[in-house]
Amino acid sequence: MKSMNWKTFAEVVGIAAIVGSLVFVGMQLRQEQEIAIVDTYGPVVESNVAVLSLIGENPEIWEKGLLGDELSTSDEIIFSGMVRAVFSRHAQMYIRFARIGPGDPEEIMKDFAYAIYMFPGLRRQWEADYEFLDHRDTALDRPQTFLDFRFETNQYLSDLDKLQPIVPAKKPFIFWSF
Question: Would you kindly state where each structural domain of the chain is located, as residue ranges?
Fold first, then answer.
C-alpha cells in the first residue's frame, strides 16, 4: 500500500514537473518572440528613413510619378527606384508580420493595394514590375512569402477594381503608417 502511495506521489510530481517545464518553455518562446520583434524595429526605422530620404530628395518626381504624369527618362528611372524601395519596404513589413508579428500581414497588403489603386503611376509601375519579379523569384526559389505578398496584393487590388471605392481628391503622398 505504501509503495502505491509513493508511486502515485512520484507520478504527480512528474506531471507537475512536465507542466512546469511546458509553462517555462512557453514563457521563453514568448520572450524570444518579443526580443525578435524589438530587434526588427531598427531595420524597419532605417528602411523608413531611407525611403523617406529618397522621396524627400525628389518630391516633384515622386508626386508626378504617383499621379501618372509624364516623366523624362531620367526621372522615370528615379521614380522606378523610389517605387522599388517602397515595394520592398511593404514586402519587408509583410514578411515581418507574417513571421513574428505583432501586426496583421493582411493589413499591409490591403493598405498597399489601396495605394496602388489610388495612384495611377504606382499602379503602372506595379504592373510593369509584377511579372518580372514573379518570374525572377520563382526561378530563384525565393521563400513562398515573397510570392504570397505579390499574389495576395494583386488579389486585393482586383477586389478594389470590382468595388471601385471613391478615391479622395487630396491624396497622401506618403501613404503608409507602419
Answer: 41-163
